[in-house]
Structures are given as structure tokens and as C-alpha cells.
Write a structure and sequence with these properties.
Elements lengths: L9 E5 L4 H14 L3 E4 L15 E5 L6 E3 L6 E5 L4 H9 L3 E2 L12 H7 L6 H4 L2 H4 E8 L4 E5 L11 H5 L7 E9 L1 E2 L3 E8 L3 H12 L7 E6 L20 E8 L1 H16 L6 E3 L2 H13 L8 E6 L5 H11 L4 E5 L4 E6 L5 H17 L3 E7 L7 H5 L6 H11 L14
Parallel strand pairs: 1-3, 2-3
Antiparallel strand pairs: 4-5, 5-9, 6-10, 7-8, 7-9, 11-13, 11-14, 12-13, 12-16, 15-17, 15-18, 16-17
Helix pairs in contact: 7-10, 10-11
């Protein structure tokens, strides 16, 4: 049995190698009232509340086959246990991609990415994993297999189970098969980087980019020591607490050249600040670093805030006031702020997280959740997910329909 300090209390782990075997495993657990903890690549076990009930692990790593890949239709159907790196290689052979950047891609599975709604820096220009999911096969809490969506992009019949299951942390069903739409790999990719003198300047630059004639793939605001050695950062003799603006463009070589020129003109003209363009090697390194940031190294606390883009600067400033050594990656145009703290004390759970940062996010039409934390902090559900929302009764009704005994990932998600 796993120790009490582990996120899950697993008495045994099963690794079925067929979708039908997954369904049978859940049916057996349903009959015996045994909690089931779905497992993928196990890269996000720190996400959510710790388990309070012993149960069985249900690994999908044995479900890693490509079911159908009509590349001319720009879709692919795969089993949920395929790793994101394996999926990338399959698509790359046909000069296609799923433009979702996730950390630890060699280990992370597609099912886990869907369950956690993991999206990376390309979210602004390319969308989220929900946008690319057009069909899902899953097993509910009774062990009944069901399907939503289909294998064609225009299939919109019936209730959209795909969007419902994405981000549900395995509490509604265990995903076993997924159909995705994919896109061509762009010919070229480049970053334009500018040093920021203040949080106010960062807020202004992001607002300007949202109105620009150029459509960036990513607009990243990077702050803190984690980024000091990032390639192509404009050098500075003084400390730069406001950070750097890192803007990505992708497309044909002609498109990238044109967009880069326009971005340099827009960013440089108001302030005279140095604007740097990346080389191909620098571009690849930066994409890798941006993708890995949420999971790189262990920290006392890692948060994800989702707010209006106009509130990003205030939230970054609040995080840095508490911990000047924290490192931040913000998908600024989407209003997402990821923060890795170098310190966090138990007393600060109430004083900072619950009393200050979560209310700040709510006032900006958003929320703050904990991605990972030192177990010694003993975070409560309130601290990890925030307070109860107006949609909780509806969520409880949906949960009851999919998992009537509450056996799927019990207690790990928003609902008790």
C-alpha cells in the first residue's frame, strides 16, 4: 500500500491492455464499492487533493495504439495511453502536429492531458486541447463504455461529452480512446523578445498586441530567476523585476518575416527598448523551456491563476511582492499566470492564498488553483480549488449521473 504522504492510497494497480478490460475492471470495482484512481503517465499526481480512501489504480498505459490515421482528413484516432511524444512522432511523419505543449511529453499520456485540461504557450494562437478533441470513448463509474463526438471534424450531433470530460480529472469517466483534429506543421517559427521596465509597461504592451495586425502564436510574459539564462534575452546591467515579453509567430517563412518586422516596429517605437529576434536554435530551446516550466523542479508551491488579461500585471506584482524570487510564466493574452514560489509557509495559506490571491482572481472574473505543493503544507480543498461556486449544484448532478457511487478519483477534484 502507498504511504500516507503519497497523493493516492493504492492497494493494487491494474494495467489493462484493451478498452474492454478497462470497462471490466471498473465494473468489478463498482460491484465491490472499491474506489478507482485512473492513471496515465503519472506526471500530475500532485494536482488536486490527496486521496482519503484506499483504492485501486487503473493505468491506461497499455492502451497506446493508433486506431486510425487518415492524414488527408487531418484527424487521428488513438488510445488514451499513448504518450504525447509518441503522438508527436506519429504526426510529424506526415508533417502534421497537435499544437498543444505539455511538460514531460515523453511520459505524459493523452488521456492525462485531457483529464487535466493541460494547455501550453501556444494557447493564444492555436487554441486548447478541447478545441482539437472531436471524439471520445470512455468508461463511466458503472463500467459502462460510451462515446461522444465522432471521427470527422463536422460531427456535432448530440451532447458534447468531449468538452465535459476534458478537465474533469477522471472523476466522471476513464478516457480510453480519443479522436483529434490536427494541423500542418508550419514552415517557420520565431520569437521576438523585449525587456520590460515595469509591470505597467508589460500590461500596455500586451494590450497593444491584442490590437495588432499580427496574430502571434504565443504572448508570454516571463518574470523571475528561472528565465535569467533563457537564450536571446536582451542584456541588462540592472535587475529586471518586470521581466520580459516573449512573442512567437509561426507560418510560412514569408509570413514569419513580415510578422516579425511588424512586431519589432510596434514594440520598439514607443520606448526605444532593445528588441531581439531569435535564431532557429534559440527558438527551439525557448519553446522547450516554456513547455516544461510548470513541472520543472520541485517547489514549495506552484499556482495557476486564470483572470482577465487586464488583471495579469496586478497578479504578477502581488506574487512578486510576497516572494521576490518566485518565477512566473504568464500566457498574458489569455489571462493565465503560472507561478513557482521559492518559499511558502503554512501561515501564508490563509494570509496570502485564501485571503488575498484567490479574492483578487475572483474580482477579475477568474480563480486560482494549486498545481502542486509541498505535502507538509497540508492544503485544504478550499486552498487548492477555491471556494464553492454557483455551478456546484449542477456539477454534483452531472457527477451523480456518471459516477453514482462516487468511486472515480473520490475527493481529488473540486467536489468532496
Amino acid at each position: 500500500m502507498a504511504s500516507v504522504s503519497d497523493p493516492l492510497l493504492l492497494e493494487e494497480t491494474f494495467s489493462p491492455e484493451s478498452q474492454e478490460a478497462v470497462a471490466q475492471c471498473v465494473r468489478d470495482a463498482y460491484e465491490s464499492n472499491t474506489p478507482v484512481y485512473p492513471l496515465g503517465g503519472e506526471t500530475s499526481l500532485d494536482y488536486g487533493c490527496s486521496a482519503q480512501m484506499p483504492g485501486i489504480g487503473l493505468s491506461t498505459r497499455g492502451l497506446n495504439r493508433v486506431v486510425d490515421y487518415p492524414s488527408r482528413d487531418m484527424t487521428i484516432t488513438v488510445e488514451a495511453g499513448i504518450t504525447m511524444e509518441s503522438l508527436r512522432r506519429q504526426l510529424e511523419a506526415q508533417r502534421q502536429r497537435l499544437p498543444i505543449d505539455v511538460p514531460q511529453a515523453a511520459q505524459a499520456t493523452l488521456g492525462g492531458v485531457l483529464a487535466t485540461a493541460c494547455d501550453g504557450p501556444r494557447r493564444f494562437g492555436c487554441g486548447t486541447i478541447r478545441d482539437y478533441t472531436i471524439g471520445i470513448t470512455a468508461v463511466d463509474g458503472r463500467g459502462t463504455m460510451f462515446r461522444g463526438g465522432g471521427r470527422v471534424v463536422k460531427n456535432v450531433a448530440g451532447y458534447d461529452f468531449c468538452k465535459l470530460l476534458v478537465g474533469s480529472l477522471g472523476t466522471l469517466a476513464t478516457i480510453v480512446q480519443v479522436t483529434l483534429k490536427v494541423v500542418p506543421i508550419p514552415e517557420a517559427s520565431r520569437f521576438v523578445v523585449q525587456r520590460l521596465n515595469s509591470h505597467a509597461e508589460g500590461e500596455q504592451r500586451v494590450a497593444e498586441l491584442l490590437q495588432a495586425e499580427v496574430t502571434p502564436t504565443a504572448i508570454e510574459w516571463l518574470v523571475g530567476p528561472a528565465w535569467n539564462d533563457l537564450p536571446a534575452l536582451p542584456s541588462s546591467a540592472d535587475d529586471t523585476p518586470a521581466g520580459w515579453l516573449v512573442v512567437a509567430v509561426e507560418g510560412t517563412q514569408t509570413e514569419v518575416d513580415w510578422m516579425t518586422e511588424r512586431l519589432v516596429q510596434r514594440l520598439a517605437s514607443p520606448t526605444g527598448q532593445q528588441v531581439v529576434q531569435t535564431t532557429s536554435e534559440q527558438t527551439a530551446t525557448i519553446w522547450q523551456r516554456l513547455s516544461e516550466f510548470p513541472a520543472a523542479e520541485k517547489h514549495p508551491l506552484v499556482l495557476r491563476a486564470t483572470v482577465l488579461s487586464s488583471a495579469v500585471a496586478d497578479l504578477i506584482e502581488a506574487f512578486r511582492q510576497y516572494d521576490p524570487q518566485c518565477s512566473i510564466q504568464s500566457h498574458a493574452a489569455n489571462g493565465i499566470v503560472l507561478a513557482r514560489f521559492s518559499k511558502f509557509e503554512p501561515a501564508d495559506i490563509a494570509q496570502q492564498l485564501i485571503a488575498r490571491w484567490q479574492p483578487m482572481a475572483r474580482q477579475a472574473s477568474g480563480h486560482v488553483v494549486v498545481l502542486s505543493a509541498d505535502p507538509s503544507l497540508g492544503l485544504t480543498r478550499q486552498a487548492i480549488w477555491g471556494g464553492a461556486g454557483d455551478d456546484w449544484p449542477l456539477m454534483q448532478t452531472v457527477k451523480q449521473q456518471f459516477d453514482p457511487k462516487g468511486l472515480l478519483n473520490p475527493g481529488r477534484f473540486v467536489l468532496p
